[in-house]
């Protein structure tokens, strides 16, 4: 896990870097707001710890720049500014937590770990996996063995349904209602055609095969021996 610390007080910054490093984290330390924002936007961090009163630009501006860039990493303010309005301002700008100096390192470390656990769970919920197949729900992308697979909107919805209920045999009636929002028509071959195209994209040329037809019942996505 990689943490960005933006702190202009030399002793405090060094103390945070040493303590977090000893706790097993990789830590980058910036001494002013501009450097902190640059690092936040050009590298990948799992969490940022910001002071408010910084040279260059203050912590509020750093946080705003992070959020404007679409970065959703947890941000914890660690500052001597202890007014209620300061806390409210930080949280309204998109901070996840706010601690006032002086602070106990044990409490800071506990909060860091809580936010990292939450962030990990959130990231995990954005992806669906089976074998070497990955579906990215946020970016609407699919890959297998690291290779991008282009799907239509319906194919993506169909694969998402199969992944969310992997191991279950899904009848055509359920697929029709969930993906096409229509009643099942036994004379229509829409589902068969879509499933054939999806299978060609995610199974042809790969092992193991993941989509299986269960004759007379429906379709299932699973890893078979």
Brief descriptors of the model:
Rossmann fold; 225 residues; 4-stranded antiparallel sheet; 20% strand; 5-stranded parallel sheet
Structural class: alpha/beta
Radius of gyration: 24 Å
Low-confidence stretches: none
Strand order of the largest sheet: 2-1-3-4-5
Number of structurally distinct domains: 2
**What is the CATH class designation of the largest domain?**
Alpha Beta
CATH architecture of the largest domain: 3-Layer(aba) Sandwich
Q: Helical percent range?
A: 40-55%
Structural summary, described in words:
The chain is an alpha/beta fold and 225 residues long. The strands form 3 sheets. A 5-stranded parallel β-sheet has the order 2-1-3-4-5, with helices on both faces.
Short synopsis of the structure:
By secondary structure, this protein is α/β, with parallel strands linked by helices. Helix content is 43%, strand content 20%.
